[in-house]
Design goal:
Elements (H helix, E strand, L loop, with lengths): L2 H6 L8 E7 L4 E4 L5 E8 L2 E5 L4 E4 L4 E5 L4 E4 L6 E5 L5 E2 L17 E3 L7 E8 L6 H4 L5 E4 L5 H10 L6 H23 L6 H5 L3 H12 L7 H8 L3 H12 L3 H19 L4 H7 L5 H12 L3 H8 L12
Parallel strand pairs: 1-10, 2-8
Antiparallel strand pairs: 1-11, 2-7, 3-6, 3-11, 4-5, 4-7, 6-12, 8-9
Helix pairs in contact: 3-4, 6-7, 7-8, 10-11
Length: 321
Amino acid sequence: MDALGSLLSGPRAQAPFLLRMVMAGSWAIRIEDKAPLTVVAVSRGEIVVTYRDGATHRLTTGSIALFRGTESYLVCDDPASPVVAVIDANGDCYDPTGTHPVAEQMRRGIRSWGNADRGADTVALIGAYQLGEVGKPLLAALSRVTIVAAQDNPLIELLDGELSVSAPAQEAVLNRLLDLLLVMTLRTHLAADPSQAPRWYRAHTDPVVGSALALMHNNVERGWTVESLANQTGVSRACLARRFAGLVGEPPMTYLTDWRLRVAADLLLGTDLTMASIAERVGYSSAFAFSSAFKRRRGSTPTEYRRAAAGDVGDNRLPMP
């Protein structure tokens, strides 16, 4: 697995929120949910996206957009259309006044949500990821909205069809289709202008550094050293250190420590594993060694981090499958 694949396989990115939005007539929805990464694929019709600063984007049939959860935005058929719903920072769905939940009244059958029972003018497939710490390097590579223009992408039709029916093992199928759509969209975007891609992404094409990155990502629990990585990649210790720092922008062990602690942070929030178990999974000899490294890098102990990040989930979210 390369760097991009590892970023998408973090423990908090395994169960994305997914639905099919069906809209007709004049409509607008204010999105304020702050999801770290949202994928919107237009299956039918057009969607206009506007930000508070006036920036406007148009998505036509076949277009795919990736939204970073840093700013609120409006999705609509026209910026002048009335707002019919607001998705707040907790992911809860309210009327424009923010006082009355409307998730249930806008439910439209299996995994569908909107104002159209039939004959929708606009159909969009929406997936939201909770990428956690592992996904932050990926988010840093994106603008607030990244759009891949309309193209002949059979994945959109497949995902649309799967969202419209109920079948065995469907959650697994939907998650994999959405992951595949996201990965292909990211690759298309990053390939369009390689000079703008993050250094860790460009480095995966190097046979030595790319192999070292894959070893660290796939075997984070191993007690890697520059020497052992160099042996695995077939170069000298000095060559690997120089080549890695030149392409990635930091020494191999610095990158590995950061990666280990990102994985650990997501395990702290996404599982109930003990400190000793997490320490073992991310390559530390003991819970004490892990706790010391975590506090040194992040300013709090793993226990403090887990406790501070715990929170309640709202009750008025958009309808789940």
